[in-house]
TrEMBL record:
Protein origin, superkingdom: Eukaryota
Database matches in Pfam families: adh_short (PF00106)
Name of the protein this chain belongs to: NAD(P)-binding Rossmann-fold containing protein
GO molecular function terms listed in the Swiss-Prot or TrEMBL record: oxidoreductase activity
Alphabetical keyword list: NADP, Oxidoreductase
Taxonomic lineage from the root: Eukaryota, Fungi, Dikarya, Ascomycota, Pezizomycotina
InterPro entries documented for this protein: NAD(P)-bd_dom_sf (IPR036291), SDR_fam (IPR002347)
Matches recorded under PANTHER family: RETINOL DEHYDROGENASE (PTHR24320), WW DOMAIN-CONTAINING OXIDOREDUCTASE (PTHR24320:SF282)
Length: 330
């Protein structure tokens, strides 16, 4: 399963012709001002959604991204920035409150933003920075927006989706799992330790999607986790291509240098997985979107590490996360 994604039969998905009308739908995306997030907004905006919200930290960068997108699309839908710092749960709560004040529905929520291999640090609330940003901030955001998502399921022709950006990089937990006792520590500056912390956060993303689906699929909300592919301009290639990681680096470099040959080479292609997850046909068959699954591009399930399919660990993570954010729930 470690390198199973190197050989796969993928779903045919075109970022222009495969996206149906999004008329009347409200979409929110974290980190929609750059990279895959920007490309997601660019590809969805022409299909007539009611409104797209970009949830991100930097107002100037986001406003520039919005202007760029609107300049490329005739009669572009409204696109609005709402400030969000995922490393501060207070900011997450404020962001969710503003979105709820603005809208009466939320059809698609992309939990897209993330950081990788940043220097050791803690979030505003004292959690390891990669875990806190990539998982815990998104966990709280989804919890606070849940009433809006649930309400949307009661509307005519509802199709509510939550798409979580994860990564096959979760394999670099080295079988250690989540190690909850270390979540309040910044951790070592040793690069392999930083890679573990990133992998742990990506494992959490996949486990979150599994448990969210288990809780809310029956209420009409489809939640999946996706790996976008290894993009030639992305973090894996930058991380492993030029640094000395010893034996670990040899493994990582082998993956980073070869996967783009059979995978994606740019955000224009890499975005297909999360777009497919947001608009593809629901079901359990090939090419259909099934809640709780982890997908490699495009639409291939069963390619995650063994740990991301552990239902008991997903429940444990959910319970731990609930306690961590309970002071910010309304």
């Amino acid at each position: 399963m470690l390198f199973g994604f190197l050989s796969r039969s993928t779903v045919d998905f075109n970022t222009t012709t495969s996206i149906p009308s999004l008329n009347g739908k409200v979409i929110a995306i974290t980190g929609g001002n750059a990279g895959l997030g920007y490309e997601t907004v660019l590809r969805l905006a022409p299909h007539n959604p009611s409104h797209i919200y970009i949830l991100s930290r930097n107002a100037s960068t986001t406003n520039a991204a919005i202007s760029s997108i609107q300049s490329q699309i005739a009669n572009c839908c409204p696109i609005t920035h709402i400030p969000l710092d995922l490393s501060d749960l207070s900011s997450v709560a404020s962001c969710a409150a503003e979105l709820q004040n603005r809208e009466e529905r939320l059809d698609i929520l992309f939990l897209n933003a993330g950081i990788m291999l940043v220097p050791p640090a803690l979030t505003a609330q004292g959690y390891e920075i990669q875990f806190g940003t990539n998982h815990l901030g998104h966990f709280l955001l989804a919890q606070l927006l849940l009433p809006l998502l649930k309400h949307t399921t009661t509307l005519p022709d509802a199709d509510v989706r939550v798409v979580v950006l994860s990564s096959v990089g979760m394999i670099f937990t080295y079988g250690r799992g989540i190690e909850y006792e270390g979540l309040g520590e910044a951790g070592s500056a040793f690069r392999a330790a930083g890679l573990y912390r990133y992998a742990r956060s990506k494992l959490c993303n996949a486990l979150f999607a599994r448990e969210f689906a288990g809780r809310y699929s029956g209420e009409g909300i489809t939640c999946v986790a996706v790996h976008p592919g290894v993009i030639s301009t992305g973090l894996w290639r930058e991380t492993f291509g030029e640094r000395d990681w010893g034996l670990l680096g040899e493994v990582g470099r082998w993956v980073a240098m070869r996967v783009p040959v059979v995978g994606f080479e740019g955000v224009e292609s890499g975005v297909r997985g999360q777009l497919w997850a947001a608009v593809g046909k629901l079901g359990k068959g090939r090419g259909e979107v099934e809640g709780g699954e982890f997908y490699t591009p495009v639409g291939v399930k069963g390619q995650g590490s063994w740990a991301c399919y552990d239902g008991e660990e997903a429940k444990r993570l959910w319970g731990w996360s609930e306690k961590a954010v309970e002071g910010y729930m309304r």
